[in-house]
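I'll show a sample.
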Amino acid sequence: MNFSTGELIFHSHLKNEDINRHSGLNATEITAYQYLGMTKIAGALNILPKTILNETIINDSTNEAIKIYKVDINYPRFYRNFLIKSDNGRFSLRVANTFSLEITSIKLKRAGSDIRLHLKPKMLLISVEEPLPPRGDMHEYFAPTTRIRRRINHCTIL
């Protein structure tokens, strides 16, 4: 992650086929853990990616979506094919969803071997530096005060 530009960069998406080398985590979980760790180290809490860059794509399903787009220049079809049908696109969509981000646009870069996804938050983040409001009596949120007082007055401790 380049915190100065807000770009989350993936140089490759490769799944190790050796079952003995699997950690039990999927790529989306690993990305989330690495991202959260880096934000803590960099002191960049509450900073979400603005773009995702998939560099030097070699995945067959993604390259198929790119080929179709280069021929028909149909952006809505490319957007759908990339995010729904290609492995890189589905991974990018899962990462965006993990961080509650919406993919607003997709740009094909550098002669078709890089794809940049532009993102925006689905909802505003609550700052981790700001404390939660003070705790109140939980009962005030669930029942009128008179009913609570009645219950308290009739309670017996054995």
Observations:
- The first helix runs from residue 27 to 42.
- The first strand starts at residue 7 and ends at 10.
- Residues 7-124 form one domain.
- The chain has one domain: 7-124.
